[in-house]
Every structure is written in C-alpha cells, then in structure tokens.
Fold this protein.
Amino acid sequence: MSKWARAGIFAAALVAFAILLILSAGCASRPPGQWHDAPRPPKTPTAAPSMRVVRMGDPCSPAGAKAKTASGNPLSCILYPGEKEPRWRIP
C-alpha cells in the first residue's frame, strides 16, 4: 500500500472520529433524559362534555334532557303518553 493510500485512509478515519466527537459532545452537555432541543409542552386534558350518569327508568326532569348510563349508553328524559313523570329511556 502506498503512502498516499495510507494517508487517505488516515484522513477518512480522522474525519469520522471528528464527526463522532462533535456529536457525542453535544449529547454529553445535556443532563440525562433531556435529548431534545426544545421542551415539550405539558399535555392538557381536553374537557369532554359533561353528561350526568343515571340509571335507566329513574324519574328525570326536564323532559328532553340527555344523560348516559355508567356503561356509557346514551339516555334521554322522555315522557310517554299516560305517564305522570318523565323517565330515563333509550332514545
């Protein structure tokens, strides 16, 4: 192998080492667990529409109101003809 070939291999190895050194120096300057440049904003929970949790068949007021069961099924406050008061029913 000629001395120029050895010089080329040495130059390539030196460049690779310099790149590795630069990349590792950037990571080492940060505390553990902080590898991103900008901190992420805290997650804010989105407010879901508030619905009452009720039991089907219970009396309710006013007629037309909406609610849900504990298992998440939607219910409406419905007054059927002949009844005295509305009750929670499946719409």
